[in-house]
Specification:
The chain has about 130 residues and is mainly alpha-helical. It is about 30% helix and about 0% strand. The longest helix has 11 residues.
């Protein structure tokens, strides 16, 4: 998730599905040149296939992640107590179900998704969705 938030695409991404699978199987990741050295170091330690070296799986567990230098400025105690203000609060339309912050994708008009022959028992929960 950190990789995707920094790069804008997943770590093993390739437009060719077979190359994508190869990248995953080989653990091949292309790090963008604009990644900070500390971010790349953290990601390499999180994404490594070798369980004996992977952060979160070592003796200190998740503490290795929290103590990594890339997170040096994070006050984890304040964050846990929700004392750190959000750097950005997106505008949300009243009424719930606002999807205006997500991109719209043109869907194939002929595509059929789901089972429309059975009643939607959860439809009332999503009445505000556009």
């Amino acid at each position: 998730m950190i990789f995707e938030m920094l790069a804008g695409y997943p770590p093993f991404y390739d437009q060719n599905p077979m190359k994508l699978y190869e990248n995953i199987m080989n653990g091949r990741i292309k790090y963008p040149s604009y990644f900070e050295a500390l971010a790349q170091d953290l990601l390499q330690r999180l994404i490594t296939a070798d369980l004996s070296k992977r952060f979160g799986n070592l003796k200190q567990g998740g503490a290795d992640i929290f103590q990594h230098a890339w997170f040096a400025e994070v006050n984890w105690e304040k964050l846990e107590r929700k004392e750190i203000p959000s750097p950005y609060i997106p505008p949300i339309r009243p009424g719930g179900g606002d999807t205006s912050q997500f991109p719209r994708y043109v869907e194939d008009e002929g595509a059929k998704y789901g089972d429309f022959t059975s009643p939607d028992v959860y439809g009332h929960l999503f009445s505000d969705f556009q």
